[in-house]
Amino acid sequence: MGMPNRLTLDDLEVLGALLSERSLTRVSALLQISQPAVSKVLARLRRRFNDPLFVRTGRGMEPTRRATALERPIREVLLAGRKLDLPLDEFHPQHSNRSFTLFMSDVGVIRLLPHVMRMLQAEAPHVSLHTIQTDPQRLHAKLEAGEVDLAVGPFPALAQTIRRQRLWMEGYLSVVRKGHPRLGPRPTLSAFRNERQIVVAPAGPLPATQASR
C-alpha cells in the first residue's frame, strides 16, 4: 500500500484560498495560476483526504465538514510558513533589554564577569546577565534548548554540534620554597615528578577554556 500524497505549501495555499473564495476562478486570479492548475491541485487534495472537500451548490462551492475542519490548521501552517521569509530582527545593544543566562564557575564569575559588566554599562546599559550553576552533564541540553545562552569554561564532553571559541589557555603554576635544595629556577620534568606535590585544581580535566553557545 503506497503512502498518501505528501502535501506541499503550494497545495495548502490553494486549499486555503478555496476556503476563502469558494470559487476556482477567483482562486486562479488571486494566486495567479491557471484554473486547470487549481482544479488539478483540488483533485490531488481530494485523493489525499479521501473527501470531496467542496461541493457545488446554488451558492457556489461549499466546503464539506472535512474541509471546514482543516481550515484552522491550514491557516496556522501557512502563517508559520510566511514567517520563515521575515527578516531577522537585528540586535541593537544600546536599546536591547534582553536578559542573558550564563553558565560559568565561581572563578569565571570573579575573573571574567567584572570586565563584561563594565563593557555592558557602556555598550548595552539595559542588558542584564544571570549566572547559573548546573550539572555539567545537563549543559548540552540546556544550550540546545536555549536555557543557557553562553557557557564559559572547559567542557570536553560537549558534542561538536555546540559552537565553541577559545578565549584563553589555562596552565599550572608551581610554587616551591626559596632555596629549595633539589629544584632550581628551571627544574627538569624528571626532577619535578620526583617531588611530593599538592595539586589545587577544579574538578575534571583542564583543557583550553572555551566559550560555548
Main pleated sheet: 5 strands, mixed
Q: Any idea what the CATH architecture of the largest domain is?
A: 3-Layer(aba) Sandwich
How many domains? The number is: 2
Fill in the CATH topology of the largest domain: D-Maltodextrin-Binding Protein, domain 2
Question: Kindly state the mean pLDDT as a whole number?
Answer: 83
Tertiary shape: elongated
The CA-CA distance between the termini, in Å, is 45 Å
Polypeptide structure, described:
- This protein is an alpha/beta fold.
- The protein folds into two domains: 9-83, Arc Repressor Mutant, subunit A (Orthogonal Bundle), CATH 1.10.10.10; 99-212, D-Maltodextrin-Binding Protein, domain 2, CATH 3.40.190.10.
- 40% of the residues lie in helices and 15% in strands.
- It has eight helices and seven strands.
- The protein has helices spanning 9-21, 24-31, 35-49, 65-83, 106-111, 113-123, 139-145, 189-194, and strands at residues 54-57, 60-63, 99-104, 128-132, 150-153, 164-168, 209-212.
- The strands form two sheets. A five-stranded mixed sheet has the order 4-3-5-7-6. The protein has a two-stranded antiparallel ribbon with strand order 1-2.
- A hairpin with a 2-residue loop joins strand 1 and strand 2.
- Helix 1 (9-21) crosses helix 4.
- It is elongated and about 110 Å long.
- Mean pLDDT is 83; it is low at 205-213.
